[in-house]
Design a protein that fits this description.
The structure is a single chain. The protein has 67 residues and is mainly alpha-helical. It is 67% helix and 0% strand. The chain is built from three helices and no strands. The longest helix is centred in the C-terminal third of the chain and has 18 residues, at 38-55.
């Protein structure tokens, strides 16, 4: 079993809040070691405000609020 597979198995057992912390840490490592191109980082940064507006709809569409 590879290390990535071990991480995947362990992450599956975590509650969503802790799994999000693991995901955030992976993003930190990718940034720290320049594992993502500047183009990818720029794209992710640009998507943030637009997606926040879409997902923060304050009950406009209750079906999507728990995703």
């Amino acid at each position: 079993m590879t290390i990535a597979e071990q991480i995947y198995r362990e992450a599956q057992t975590l509650p969503d809040e802790l799994a999000q912390e693991v995901l955030d840490f992976i993003g930190y490592i990718e940034t720290k070691y320049h594992l993502k191109s500047a183009k990818d980082r720029d794209l992710l940064a640009a998507q943030g405000p637009a997606m926040a507006r879409i997902w923060d709809n304050r009950a406009d569409d209750e079906a999507w609020n728990d995703l």
